[in-house]
Amino acid sequence: MRRSRILGFGSYLPANRVTNEELAKRVDTSDEWITQRTGIMARHVAAEGETTSMLATKAAERALADAGVKAEDIDLIVLATATPDYTFPATATQVQAALGITKGVAFDVAAVCSGFVFALTTADKFLASGSHKRALVIGAETFSRILDWEDRTTCVLFGDGAGAVVLEAFEAAGTNEDVGILTTHLRSDGRHREKLYVDGGPSTTGTAGHLRMEGKEVFKHAVGMITDVITDAYAATGYNSSTIDWFVPHQANRRIITASAEKLGISLDKVVLTVQDHGNTSAASIPLALDTAWRDGRLKRGQVVLIEAMGGGFTWGSALFRL
Ligand code: UT7
User: Fold this and answer.
1) I need a labelling partner for 290 at 20 to 30 A (CA). Which of 189, 268, 302, 321 fits?
2) The pTM is what?
3) Closest Cα to atom 35, ligand 1: which residue?
4) Distance, CA of 111 to CA of 96 (rounded, Å)
5) What is the pLDDT of residues 265-321, one digit of tens each?
6) How far is the CA of 156 from the centre of ligand 1 (A)?
7) In terms of residue numbers, what domain contains 252?
C-alpha cells in the first residue's frame, strides 16, 4: 500500500524571547502564577514586519535541508495557521513563492491549535492517494498579533513560531511495522465556538479581532478529547502507551499534557515538552516540539511517535507514525 513517511524536520522561532518577568511588567501577573498554572517560562514574539509566511518559509527551508530534498521537488504544501498574513491569498502560496516553487498546489487549513494534525492528515491522504509525491506540511503562527495585551488571562499563554516536516509517498508493506504515517484521527464540534475564538473577522467585524478564551472550560474538555483520539489511534494500529516510543502533544499547558499522559498510562519520560520555552504556538507547537526532539537526538529512525492536539472549534485529532 501507498503510505507517506517523514523525511526531515525544521523549525524557526523569532529572535525576540519574552520571559514571564518581562510580561509581569506589562500586565498584573507573576512568573510564579504563569509557571505554576501552565509550565510556561518564556515565549518568542515576532518582530514588526515579521509575518507568519516568513516564519513558515524559514522552517520549511530547514526541513528541506534536513530531508535532503530540493524545493523544486515539492508538489504539495499544506500550511496550518490561524494567523495568516492576509485574509487571502493562502499563506501557503506565499511560502510556495518564497521557496521558488512554481508547480503543484499550496493551500492552508484552519483548525487553530489542532492545525498541524489536520494538515499532516490532509497531506498524508493526498500522498497515499497517488495524486502527489512530496509534501511540505507546516504549522506557523504569529499569535502575538491577535492577543489582547491587556488581558492577562490569555496574553501570557501564547507565542509565535513555525515548524515543518517533509513528507514523501512510498510503497509500504501495509503492516503496522511499516515506517510512515500509520493512522490519523480528526474530530470537530462547532457547538464550542464561544469557549475559544477570535472576536473579529472579515465577514463579521471587518477586523482581525482578538483571541478570547474561557480557559477553565477548555481545560475541562481537553483531557477527555485528547484521550478519545489517542484511544482511536491505538485501536487502529495495535500500539499502546507501553509500545510507543514518544508522545509529542500540542503544547498548551503542562498540566493538560501531564494529566493526559497519566490518564493514558504514558510514562512521563516519553513525553516531549517544549511549552516551557515556546508557550502555546497553536499550529506550530507540535512541529516545533518534533524538531526540538529530532535535533537533540531523542527521536530516532524506527521509533513510533504519537502526536495529538485540541483547540478552537473545538477541533481535535491524533496521528501515529514510525520514523
Ligand atoms: O491550545 C488549546 C487551547 N488552550 C488551552 O488548552 C488552555 C486551557 N486552559 C488552561 O490552560 C488554563 O485554564 C489557564 C492556564 C488558562 C488558566 O488556569 P486555571 O488554573 O484554569 O486558572 P483560572 O482561569 O481558574 O484562574 C484562577 C485565578 C483567577 O483569579 P480568581 O478568580 O481565583 O481570583 C484569575 O483571575 O487566576 C487569575 N489569573 C491570573 N493571575 C495572575 C488568570 N490569569 C492570570 C495571570 N496572572 N496571567
Assistant:
1) 189
2) 0.98
3) 153
4) 21
5) 999 999 999 999 999 999 999 999 999 999 999 999 999 999 999 999 999 999 999
6) 10
7) 180-322
